[in-house]
Specification:
The structure holds 5 protein chains of 5 kinds. By secondary structure, chain A is an all-alpha fold. Chain A is built from 3 helices and no strands. Chain A is 86% helix and 0% strand. The chains are: A mainly alpha, B mainly alpha, C mainly alpha, D mainly alpha, E mainly alpha.
């Protein structure tokens, strides 16, 4: 039972990461891509970590996975923010796609 | 069984794909970024092969720091002469393709032949595992690095020191470079530093401590610290200082000095050099090496003899 | 004779002039006085040492100095009768040439360098004379190349440098040929010293071809310096050097070293019977004869005085090789004694040519008209030496030619006498016109050269030329005297060719 | 077992790409990238080829590769510092020892000293 | 003192001195470096006695017998090169002292790098472990490249970059070879790692790697510019020792690790050596700059040293080992002299050489003596080496090698006499008038002494030859 649930979450996680990558390739400008990357990937990573925690079943591993997820979250938000500020300083956002 | 193969083939393809991007890419900066990705893929493969120490090292040093060093070097080139820095000087020649294919074929045949050849029954690795418990260490790689082949590690730390002193020949002739990124004074960035710095130090200590029994050790810990050092430089908490100070120089020399002690102390007691002096001495040496690795790589990134605190 | 003295004398002879050279180099250009005295003292000491060793050898003592250079290789300096012959010739002519050179180079630059290498040449020549085995001979032979090259290029003009280059090309190639031959010989025969009659007889059975090839290479290697015809190219070009150097090269150092090498090879390495057995004797005679004739013919063609003398040397040296190759007591001694005689005569000729060139700026033959009256002493010396070269008694030239001819008749090669006669005629053909111009033609109004040379050095120049000329006559007349070179050579030759 | 074969082939391919990069690259940074690729390929071979000891790779090659990685990063760091200095002095990041940089006038355009003027001209002649 | 302490001292005295030099401020670095550089050669005297007594000294780190741990081995060949390193290093010290004073910009890093170079060379000479050899060679190459870059000229920096890139490529191939040997034999010790099955491939890989580092002919591209543009003392120590360390390693692997290498490979490498001799000599003859002439002559002489492989006999080894000694001293002396000439005349182009013998007699005499040893004229050390190789060639009926060895002297005579004719006998028409400050007398004397030594050992070669005569690097005779 636990394995089935873990498998479902793992697949969902992979789907979200895949979605984030497709978004990054397809979306027109920097800001949209940042959205896709930060949101989708983080969610995907959460799901994968949860499924792994379920599979491992030990508290120490779960806490480690949680820590990994938090770090990834922190890193991606700050870098997304900096990239956005940097590209806005260089080219202000206009209505039409670049 | 075939699931293993599929994963291996996938990993192999990813690795070669990234390598192709690095080698054949048109823009230089893209190649550098792909090189970092290549380093990470390499780390995954080390993990897949069961060489955990190497995975850690390659991720931290191979991908992380080498990538950082290359990017900062690239940024300096652009700073000097933007158009020349990315000058497209690759000349495509069919001879090169032919030679490359030939060498690849040669290496492949040699590798495959080596895989299937008869092996000597007794290898140094087996002896290491057999005699590991004499050293009280759990992790065989650290055993080899520090106890059985300690002299290699000493010379390797000397190579790192030479690289730093050698780079001082170049960097002392030119003015210090700015290493901070735009927008480094943002509160958001300051919180990032406030969170990551202590965590990085904690992880480094953890890696150093468990290095004796599980994958980890001085180099990996040093690399993590160097990574945080790079972060501090980028965010302006630390700035390159023009004049070197005694502390920086001592830290640089610590690793080689500690290992030299491990050689000279047993010699003074009449025992062969690098004779095993107990686990405590190993930890002491590893700590010193960690400090040396961290400080050297950070200073190499900064291109400066020492660092000073940036304005808070 | 104390044992340590027997061991110390040969290297002492070699080192005397090396020390002198060091002193001269260190002293540098400024100390003119010091250099003159060092030169003269060194030359006299060397002569005394050689005479002392000569008398001791006559009295039956043996001198042997061994120095183990390499595990399988020894540097041996020993004083047998033949080495004393060459050493005494070198020592005597060296003293005279030093006096002449001091006077000749009174005004010219770079004298320290000249006299330094000048003395080094002496030690190299002494080393060759005293060599006890082929390796020592080779070492000093190469040293001779190294020390004579700076003398050839001394005045730094483009022609001098070109001459130096060609000199190097010939002599270094010769050195390589010799090196390969010696390595091969050492492989076959091992580390063996010079033994009268040769030490290769036992090997001839299975190494016949190898030995003959090695012999050819050794003769070619030494032949370059002995100026055998196809290999003589460097000699005329080397005339660009100052007169004392030409005299030194032709009469004493380089050319004779080559001839001496061939003598050692034929007499002390192979032995004449082995050479004949290998079928190399006749070709050697042929080459010598060929060089004599062609040398004289080339001399005829030359209008430059020094170049004509150069070609005459080319032919004269081959007399020595001819004598050795013909073999037999008479011919061998004729060849060996010509080593000394030709040295004396050629030195005189070059001294005179040098004086003409220096004082009167005379370098072409047609400028010689009427010099007999202007410089009577020098011209008489020149005439005596020229007559000696032709073979007119009582000058020494006649003695050696006489022995060569009688030796050829005694041996089984009568046609050699024809060659000797032809060469005598050719010598006459290219020397007599010179003598006629000196004495019998009216001199043109040759202005005295502006070089105001000191009276003392003018006297020194003339005196040295006259001295050597006198020596050629005295030795010619007193040939039978026990201490004369001829008797000395007869005693050597009896050792080598009793029949 | 065939897992190793895959990685050996991958390593060979990367080695070939590295050689190609090395031969065609003009820019020194690209040459360094290519060399690092080749190094990684050799390290991969160093771990894959030797026999595994009860499932895990042999510890000795692991230690060798670890040493190799640290040496690689030191050499690369030094090479980058050298490249930057050469770029600042020569105006372009390529190795043309025989070509006199001044003759490459059209390539460098501006004088090679960029905004970060080094604080002393150094002993070398421009 | 037991030999272990001596061997450890050889590497750790310069290393500790380097560490102290890095720690101390610039003012004290030069004296500390001088102390370190003068201290370790003193150990060579007791070591020579020990090696003379029992042929090879071995030391194992930590008591872990190879293949588990790393072993050191000092044999006659290593001792000869250590002596060359000591003598050339001491002779180069005055020049370095004069040129890298505390006020000079590059002085701060120069002195530690100089000591680290010595450490690397000594460690590489003692290494009896394949991977330890790689690490030591890497340390030597990196230090050497950094030392070349201390001369901030564009040519020096380019030469340094070229040397570094090729050095990495070379060591990369070497490591691959070592990996294959380890995979096959499970051991990294030099004398135990005879990989029968994979031997030829691993051997070729390792040899190619080492040939790049030793700049043997087809892979020599980096050497001329590196030696030609490096500062004087650096070029001296590099030409005397650094290039040769890789060559000694190559010999050891050839004789020790690969027990009986295929004859085809031996003759092929001999042929490569032959081509190197001719090519090096020709190029040296045509170089417009004095230092480049001397640098190209190194390539010719390295080719000459490769002839040991096809003539693998005891006498050949004695000859090649001795030539190593003589050539090292002579070449270091010539580079030191050239460095002085460059500092005085401002440029070392051949056109400024005429009339040099009057202005700088000591340098001219050093160049002459060095040249004599390069040609191998009889009294000099070069001749002894050449003679031994000649007899070895004769013993093995190697006619081609016999003639080649004889001709190699002739070819080097070509470029040596060209230099001598220019310095001493050409009239000084276009002499360079503004002479820069003349370096202190001791630098020229040091160079002259070194050159004299190279000639004198020719007269008294017995200790070196007797040592080298005990056996081939692999102990097999």
């Amino acid at each position: 039972m636990i394995d089935l649930l873990a498998l479902v979450m793992l697949l969902a996680g992979c789907f979200f990461v895949f979605a984030g990558t497709v978004g990054m390739l397809r979306l027109p400008d920097v800001y949209c891509r940042l959205h896709a990357l930060t949101k989708a990937d983080n969610l995907g990573l959460l799901l994968i970590c949860l499924s792994l925690a379920l599979l491992a079943g030990r508290l120490r591993i779960t806490l480690l996975l949680l820590l990994i997820w938090l770090l990834a979250l922190l890193a991606s938000t700050v870098s997304a923010h900096l990239i956005a500020r940097h590209s806005r300083a260089r080219r202000p956002p206009t209505g039409e796609p670049q | 069984m075939n699931a293993q193969i599929v994963v291996d083939i996938a990993l192999g393809l990813i690795l070669v794909g990234l390598a192709a991007q690095v080698a054949l890419g048109r823009h230089l900066f893209r190649s550098i970024v792909f090189y970092v990705a290549f380093g990470l893929a390499m780390a995954v493969i080390w993990a897949r092969l069961g060489a955990a120490d190497l995975a850690l090292a390659d991720a931290a040093i191979g991908a992380g720091l080498t990538g950082a060093l290359m990017m900062v070097a690239f940024r300096r080139l652009v700073g000097i002469d933007p158009e020349q820095a990315q000058a497209q000087m690759t000349r495509h020649s069919h001879v090169a393709v032919a030679v490359a294919a030939l060498t690849a074929g040669l290496v492949a045949t040699v590798g495959l032949a080596a895989l299937t050849m008869a092996r000597a029954p007794e290898s140094a690795g087996m002896q290491v595992l057999a005699r590991l418990e004499e050293t009280g260490l759990g992790n065989p790689v650290t055993g080899v690095l520090l106890v059985f082949r300690g002299f290699d590690t000493l010379i390797e730390m000397a190579v790192l020191l030479t690289a730093f002193v050698g780079s001082r020949v170049m960097t002392q002739r030119s003015r210090l470079n700015v290493t901070t990124i735009s927008g480094f004074e943002l509160p958001l960035v300051r919180t990032l530093v406030a969170v990551i710095l202590p965590l990085a130090v904690l992880i480094a200590m953890h890696l150093l401590w468990i290095g004796a029994d599980q994958p980890g050790g001085a180099f990996q810990a040093g690399a993590v610290l160097a990574g945080s050092g790079v972060l501090l430089l980028l965010t302006g908490t630390l700035l390159p200082a023009p004049r070197s100070n005694a502390m920086a120089r001592l830290a640089l020399v610590a690793g080689v000095a500690a290992l030299s002690l491990l050689v000279l102390v047993p010699l003074s007691q009449g025992r062969p050099p690098l004779a095993f002096l107990g686990k405590g001495s190993l930890l002491f040496a590893e700590a010193a090496m960690m400090v040396s690795v961290a400080v050297s790589l950070t200073l190499l990134f900064a291109g400066a003899p020492a660092l000073k605190a940036g304005r808070q | 004779m104390a044992p340590w003295l027997a061991q110390a004398l040969p290297p002492a002879v070699v080192l005397v002039s090396t020390l002198a050279a060091l002193v001269i180099f260190v002293a540098g250009e400024a100390h003119q006085r010091l250099r003159i005295w060092v030169n003269l003292i060194a030359a006299t000491i060397k002569l005394l040492l050689v005479v002392w060793i000569g008398l001791a050898v006559l009295a039956g003592n043996t001198f042997m100095f061994r120095f183990e250079l390499l595990p399988g290789l020894e540097l041996i300096l020993h004083a047998d009768a033949l080495s004393i012959l060459f050493a005494s010739l070198s020592a005597v002519l060296w003293l005279v040439t030093t006096v002449y050179a001091i006077a000749y180079l009174e005004r010219s630059p770079n004298r320290a360098r000249f006299f330094g290498f000048f003395s080094l040449c002496v030690s190299a020549t002494m080393g060759i004379a005293m060599a006890g085995n082929l390796m020592t001979l080779f070492i000093f032979y190469e040293l001779l190349t190294l020390t004579t090259w700076p003398l050839v290029v001394h005045n730094g003009t483009p022609e001098a440098l070109a001459a130096g280059r060609s000199y190097l090309r010939y002599t270094l190639t010769g050195g390589v040929v010799l090196l390969v031959a010696m390595a091969w010989l050492y492989g076959l025969a091992g580390n063996v010293e010079f033994t009268p009659g040769g030490f290769l007889a036992p090997l001839v059975a299975e190494h016949r071809i190898a030995l003959s090839v090695i012999f050819a290479m050794l003769v070619a290697g030494f032949g370059i310096k002995a100026a055998l015809i196809p290999l003589h190219g460097w000699l005329p070009k080397a005339m660009v050097a100052p007169a004392p150097v030409s005299a030194l090269l032709h009469a004493v150092a380089v050319v004779k070293a080559g001839a001496f090498g061939i003598i050692r090879t034929v007499e002390d390495v192979y032995g004449l019977e082995l050479v004949a057995e290998l079928g190399m004797r006749i070709p050697l005679i042929a080459v010598a004869a060929w060089t004599i004739i062609i040398g004289s013919l080339l001399a005829l063609r030359e209008h430059e005085l020094k170049r004509r003398l150069a070609y005459s040397t080319v032919s004269q040296v081959s007399y020595i090789v001819l004598g050795i190759a013909v073999g037999g007591l008479l011919a061998t001694s004729g060849g060996m004694v010509h080593l000394v005689h030709q040295g004396l005569m050629k030195v005189t000729l070059f001294f005179c040519a040098g004086i003409y060139g220096l004082l009167l700026g005379v370098s072409r033959i047609d400028q010689l008209d009427g010099l007999g009256r202007r410089m009577p002493w020098v011209s008489t010396a020149f005439t005596i030496a020229a007559l000696g070269m032709i073979g007119v008694p009582p000058v020494v030239g006649f003695v050696s030619k006489w022995y060569l001819a009688s030796g050829a008749l005694a041996a089984d090669v009568p046609w050699v006498v024809g060659v000797l006669i032809a060469s005598a005629l050719l010598n006459a053909a290219y020397f007599l016109p010179l003598i006629r111009r000196l004495w019998l033609t009216e001199g043109g109004a040759l202005a005295e050269m502006p070089i105001e040379i000191g009276a003392l050095s003018r006297l020194a120049l003339v005196a040295s030329a006259v001295a050597t000329a006198a020596l050629t006559v005295v030795l010619g007349m007193l040939a039978a005297h026990p201490l004369s070179p001829l008797s000395w050579v007869l005693e050597i030759a009896s050792g080598y060719a009793p029949w | 077992m065939s897992g190793e074969v895959v990685f050996v082939l991958a390593a060979a391919a990367i080695f070939g790409l590295g050689v190609h990069g090395l031969l065609t690259a003009g820019h020194i940074m690209r040459k360094l990238l290519a060399l690092n690729l080749m190094l990684s390929a050799v390290f991969l071979l160093l771990i894959v080829v030797p026999a595994r000891i009860d499932g895990l790779p042999d510890p000795v090659p692991q230690a060798l590769v670890l040493t190799g990685i640290v040496i690689a990063v030191s050499t690369t760091a030094f090479a980058l510092a050298l490249m930057v200095r050469l770029f600042r002095r020569q105006g372009h990041a390529a190795i043309h020892p025989d070509v006199d940089p001044r003759m490459l006038g059209h390539v460098t355009g501006r004088t090679s000293a960029g905004p970060q003027e080094e604080h002393d001209r150094g002993s070398g002649s421009r | 003192m037991n030999p272990a302490v001596l061997l450890v001292g050889l590497v750790f005295i310069p290393l500790v001195a380097a560490l102290v030099a890095v720690i101390l401020p610039v003012r004290f670095r030069r004296p500390v470096a001088l102390l370190g550089a003068l201290a370790w050669p003193l150990l060579l005297v007791p070591l020579s006695i020990a090696v003379a007594r029992d042929q090879t000294l071995t030391l194992v780190f930590g008591g872990w017998t190879p293949p588990l741990g790393i072993g050191w081995r000092l044999d006659a060949l290593g001792l000869v090169l250590l002596w060359v390193h000591a003598l050339a290093g001491i002779a180069a010290l005055p020049g370095a002292w004069h040129r890298f004073g505390p006020k000079v910009v590059a002085a701060a890093p120069f002195w530690p790098l100089w000591l680290i170079l010595s450490t690397g060379v000594n460690a590489a000479l003692l290494a009896a472990d394949l991977f330890n050899l790689y690490v030591s060679l890497e340390l030597t190459t990196l230090a050497a490249v950094a030392l070349i870059a201390t001369d901030d000229g564009i040519a020096a920096l380019t030469a340094a970059m070229r040397y570094l890139l090729l050095g990495v490529l070379g060591s990369l191939m070497y490591v691959l070879g070592v990996g294959l040997v380890y995979a096959q034999t499970g051991s990294l010790a030099m004398d135990q790692a005879d990989a029968a099955a994979i031997r030829d491939v691993a051997l070729v890989l390792m040899l190619t790697g080492l040939m790049v580092k030793a700049a043997i002919f087809p892979l020599h591209v980096w050497l001329p510019h590196a030696y030609g543009n490096a500062p004087g003392p650096v070029a001296a120590i590099m030409s005397a020792v650094v290039g040769k360390v890789a060559l000694v390693a190559l010999w050891r692997i050839w004789f020790q690790t690969a027990a009986d290498p295929p004859d085809l490979l031996a003759d092929l490498l001999g042929l490569v050596g032959a081509v190197a001799i001719v090519y090096g000599a020709l190029a040296a003859y045509m170089q417009p700059r004095l230092k480049m002439v001397i640098a190209w002559s190194s390539i010719s002489q390295f080719g000459f040293l490769m002839l040991l492989l096809p003539l693998a006999s005891q006498t050949a080894f004695q000859g090649a080992g001795f030539h190593l000694l003589a050539h090292g001293l002579a070449k270091a002396a010539m580079f030191l002299a050239a460095a002085n000439i460059v500092t005085v005349l401002g440029s070392d182009s051949i056109r400024h050489l005429p009339g040099l013998d009057k202005r700088m007699p000591l340098e001219a005499f050093t160049l002459a003596l060095g040249g004599v040893t390069l040609i191998g004229l009889p009294p000099s050390g070069g001749f002894t080496g050449k003679w031994m190789l000649l007899t070895a060639a004769w013993e093995q009926q190697g006619w081609f090698w016999l003639v080649l060895i004889a001709l190699s002297g002739l070819m080097s005579a070509a470029y040596v006499f060209r230099i001598l004719a220019l310095t001493c006998f050409h009239p000084a028409r276009r002499a360079v008038h503004e002479l820069h400050a003349r370096p202190p007398k001791i630098t020229s004397l040091a160079a002259l002494l070194l050159a004299l030594l190279a000639v004198i050992i020719g007269l008294y070669p017995h200790p070196a030859l007797e040592l080298l005569g005990r056996g081939l690097p692999g102990g097999a005779s």
